[in-house]
């Protein structure tokens, strides 16, 4: 073999190796890369008035420093401020059975089991674009085998995530600045049958009487009314009412976020 | 079961030949006896400690609520019947404390309780223990601990049904 032939052969080998390395890198799934997850949290009371029944709205956004979708979410804890008053709330006067919820959606649940509603955005790991919305998330009161307040979440996904998803959160006592926490394990949601799991990117949910209608019997007639919500604490700590959230992802990584609801203006 | 506790005044001396000295001695004895008498009870007055088996149910309605406390009033029936007042304080999402006052004829009994609290649907249930902390009238020396304390809260109108049972002494 001449020197020229050897050079041609060597350059061909380098080119093939380069292509192979590039293909190998492209084949590594995003989840296997070292990602740094971030979370942001927002929360509000409506109305935001000391000692008054309210609707709590919270929203979170999950992202990564690398700009790709975060790994699938597997658990979350939402810590709520101390002094939130559950004593006289009428939310969840009826119980929704999980099997009925999954089979029939919200129609399978008593009206008086509704706690709130919301929506979510998910990323699907194939080329249909990002930011697919799950327009319907419902929160209803579920059975509480452990004795704690139980919240059933129901998400009704449409194209491209065609899945009806139900999972349970428990309201547990907390300590210090936080009086209670809503703790939930989030099941993995496959994008398509046999396909990879979707990543949750945005969630916004309200818990409280806004836009809810309950019913009761008065002299044999069915009367609609607005249930009394959980009450805003009677005192506002310096810096506002603290909320915090902790998120756990499929790979075991975590992210957390804090936010405060401003103290209501004094009269 | 009845335990009888009797306090007696000291025996006083009789008059004799040395009257002034004996009179002074008798006076001193009387004073000493008077000082020795217990404040609450007179000579030969007795307190009988009895044990009462309590098994009472109360049906109460909300009269007011303040913060985490439901203030309720109703009637108790069972071992001791009368008006019942309950202050139920929800201290966390799954615990309550309570003060119960029952007013049977001739006195009152006050208890303090701590219980787990489980809201679920239309009813919240609570279950724990109660101590008798004081009493008045016929139940003046009421005391006891480890009594059973349980009940339900109807979440639509905060009406409470409570059941207490166990033994206490008075």
Describe this structure as you would to a colleague:
The complex is a heterodimer of chains A (267) and B (170). Chain A is mainly beta and 267 residues long. In chain A, 12% of the residues lie in helices and 42% in strands. Chain A has two domains: 1-32; 36-261, no CATH class. Chain A has two helices and 13 strands; from the N terminus they run H-E-E-E-H-E-E-E-E-E-E-E-E-E-E. The longest helix of chain A has 25 residues, at 3-27. The termini of chain A are far apart. Residues 13-31 of chain A have low confidence and may be disordered. Chain B has 170 residues and is mostly beta strands. Chain B has two domains: 2-44, no CATH class; 50-169, Beta Barrel (AOC barrel-like), CATH 2.40.350. Chain B contains one helix and nine strands. Chain B has one helix at 19-36, and strands at residues 2-6, 46-66, 69-78, 82-92, 95-103, 107-120, 123-137, 144-154, 159-169. An eight-stranded antiparallel beta barrel of chain B has the order 2-3-4-5-6-7-8-9. Chains A and B meet through strand 7 of A and strand 6 of B.
Summarize the structure.
The complex is a heterodimer of chains A (267) and B (170). With 267 residues, chain A is mostly beta strands. Helices cover 12% and strands 42% of the residues of chain A.
Q: What class do helices, strands and sheet pairing of chain A give?
A: mainly beta
Q: What is the succession of H and E elements of chain B? A: EHEEEEEEEE
Assign the structural class of chain B, choosing from mainly alpha, mainly beta, alpha/beta, alpha+beta, or little secondary structure: mainly beta
What overall geometry of chain A do the principal axes of the alpha carbons give? globular
Domains of chain A (count): 2
- Identify the quaternary structure here: heterodimer
Radius of gyration of chain A: 24 Å
**Number of E-state strands of chain A:** 13
What number of domains of chain B?
Answer: 2
Described by the principal axes of the CA atoms, the overall outline of chain B is: elongated
- How many individual helices of chain B? 1
Poorly predicted runs of chain A are: 13-31
Evaluate the radius of gyration of chain B: 24 Å
Strand order of the largest sheet of chain A: 1-2-9-4-5-6-7-8-3-12-13
């Amino acid at each position: 073999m001449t020197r020229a032939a050897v050079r041609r052969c060597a350059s061909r080998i380098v080119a093939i190796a380069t292509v192979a390395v590039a293909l190998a890198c492209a084949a590594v799934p995003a989840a296997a890369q070292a990602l740094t997850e971030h979370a942001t949290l927002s929360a509000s009371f409506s109305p935001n008035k000391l000692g008054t029944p309210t609707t709590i709205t919270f929203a979170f956004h999950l992202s990564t420093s690398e700009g790709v979708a975060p790994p699938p979410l597997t658990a979350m804890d939402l810590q709520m401020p101390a002094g939130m008053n559950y004593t006289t709330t009428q939310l969840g006067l009826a119980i929704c059975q999980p099997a009925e919820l999954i089979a029939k959606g919200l129609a399978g649940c008593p009206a008086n089991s509704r706690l709130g509603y919301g929506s979510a955005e998910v990323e699907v790991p194939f080329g249909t674009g990002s930011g697919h919305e799950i327009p319907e998330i419902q929160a209803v009161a579920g059975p509480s085998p452990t004795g704690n307040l139980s919240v059933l979440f129901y998400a009704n996904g449409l194209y491209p995530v065609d899945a009806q998803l139900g999972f349970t959160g428990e309201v547990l006592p907390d300590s210090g600045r936080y009086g209670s926490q809503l703790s939930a394990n989030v099941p993995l949601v496959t994008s398509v049958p046999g396909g990879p799991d979707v990543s949750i990117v945005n969630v916004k949910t309200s818990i409280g009487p806004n836009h809810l209608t309950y019913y009761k019997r008065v002299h044999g007639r069915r009367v609609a009314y607005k249930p009394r919500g959980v009450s805003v604490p009677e005192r506002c700590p310096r810096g506002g009412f603290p909320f915090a959230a902790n998120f756990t992802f499929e790979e075991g990584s975590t992210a957390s976020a804090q936010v405060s609801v401003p103290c209501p203006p004094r009269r | 079961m009845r335990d009888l506790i009797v306090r007696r005044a000291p025996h006083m001396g009789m008059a004799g030949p040395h009257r002034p000295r004996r009179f002074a001695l008798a006076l001193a004895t009387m004073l000493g006896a008077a000082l020795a008498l217990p404040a609450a009870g007179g000579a030969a007055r007795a307190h009988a400690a009895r044990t009462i088996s309590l098994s009472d149910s109360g049906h109460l309605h909300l009269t007011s609520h303040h913060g985490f406390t439901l203030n309720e009033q109703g009637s108790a029936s069972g071992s001791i019947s009368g008006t019942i007042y309950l202050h139920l304080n929800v201290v966390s999402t799954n615990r309550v404390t309570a003060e119960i006052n029952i007013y049977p004829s001739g006195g009152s009994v006050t208890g303090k309780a701590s219980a787990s609290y489980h809201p679920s649907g239309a009813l919240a249930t609570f279950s724990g223990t109660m101590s008798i902390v004081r009493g008045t009238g016929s139940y003046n020396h009421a005391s006891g601990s480890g009594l059973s304390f349980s009940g339900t809260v109807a979440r639509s109108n905060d009406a409470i049904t409570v059941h207490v049972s166990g033994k206490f002494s008075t």
